[in-house]
Amino acid sequence: MSQLKQISHLDNIPSTPGKFKMDKSPYIHRLRWHSSHAKLTFWFFLFLGLMLLLFLRSPPSSPSDPTRRSLRTSTWGGPAWEKRVRSSARVRARHGLSVLVTGAAGFVGTHVSAALKRRGDGVLGLDNFNDYYDPALKRARQALLDRTGVFVVDGDINDSALLRKLFDVVAFTHVMHLAAQAGVRYAMQNPGSYVHSNIAGLVSVLEACKSANPQPAIVWASSSSVYGLNSKVPFSERDRTDQPASLYAATKKAGEEIAHTYNHIYGLSITGLRFFTVYGPWGRPDMAYFFFTKDILKGKSIPIFEGPDHGTVARDFTYIDDIVKGCLASLDTAGKSTGSGGKKKGPAQLRVFNLGNTSPVPVTQLVSILERLLKVKANRMMMKMPRNGDVQFTHANISLAQRELKYKPTTDLQTGLKKFVRWYLSYNSGSQKKSSW
Ligand SMILES: O=C(O)[C@H]1O[C@H](OP(=O)(O)OP(=O)(O)OC[C@H]2O[C@@H](n3ccc(=O)[nH]c3=O)[C@H](O)[C@@H]2O)[C@H](O)[C@@H](O)[C@@H]1O
Known about the structure:
There is one protein chain. By secondary structure, the protein is an alpha/beta fold. It has a domain of 263 residues: NAD(P)-binding Rossmann-like Domain (Rossmann fold). Helices cover 45% and strands 13% of the residues. It contains 14 helices and 13 strands. Helix 5 runs parallel beside helix 6, helix 5 packs across helix 11 and helix 8 packs parallel to helix 9. It is globular and about 75 Å long. Bound molecules: uridine-5'-diphosphate-glucuronic acid. InterPro entries: Epimerase_deHydtase, NAD(P)-bd_dom_sf. Its EC number is 5.1.3.6. Belongs to the NAD(P)-dependent epimerase/dehydratase family.
């Protein structure tokens, strides 16, 4: 009422001297005033509503968060999104697991996610789709997973609000943590990205796991590179890992120590897997077997590294399907985490396994196999191994994984590369097969 009184009072007073027009009836003026006031109120509430909606949908982030800029454009959240998350993570098999797979649009992540889904486990993927290599390949893998029934959330492992949300929506029994900055030599160009993903990112994931209720068991990707300058072969889990040859290796080694801490303090069950040069269909374009294939087909020269005195450089190349079996066996045999509400209740399992092939192959032989499969002679450019993080050879002792995980690699390099080349040619032919396994 008082507002009405005020309005009628105002009606009789010119707002600005000279603008008050006596020729218009006060009634008409009042009507106009009311309608503009109503409009104003309408727009005000619309604006307020929009702001509220934006606030509720966007995740809170701390100002010190290095991914803050990318978080602003993050699109997670909302009822439809949560429904997709729940449905993707729903367990369909009896005694199935509910697994959060980080780095799900990556090479190993895609294969592991699909394999889990096929056997009836619930799987939710998470990936930030960064451009370390062509994101189109990651999107193609995502499309493939989508058809398998796996939803890959677009987000960063450093986004702790997102991780919290995921654990709020789903009570994951396991986390398969594969998101990382990979590549040995790239560490010299972009050291920060290794610290961001492999150290800060790992801590962010472990923080979310430790606070989750129930705490999940964690299996994560370490690397054969932690053996660094170790010269005792084959590499056993008991050998020294305190001489990393690259920052990449150092961040993976740091990850193993961080895992120890979270196991010790919070009772998290953690298994680290030291992968040995994993290759296969849907692989990583930054790896030698992949870009050698591309460059041989283009007639470009390929740099082949040699050790001192023309010494052989060799790798224990391991086929993706063998690695997937090792990952699944690790999840299946993982003990439960013992903590709850961020507090340890008892000792929990802490394991590290080599997942290799136990038969190192010289890089020159890798090239010969590719030449035969592609029916093209490579333009070989022999060169001294640059001092940028590489080690001369790797060779896994897998007896521990054999004993504990029943891990038994079955694919030799020739057979595995044949499958890779078949996929590579089909993927790049733009044919219908482009997105099949
Ligand atoms: O085992 C591992 O954990 C690591 O395996 C690979 O690292 P790497 O073995 O160096 O794989 P590639 O980069 O594909 O190199 C394979 C071999 O080719 C050699 N190479 C590489 C590049 C090149 O131009 N020429 C060349 O001869 C390397 O010295 C190496 O012996 C992955 O890139 C790492 O992310 C992973 O952590």
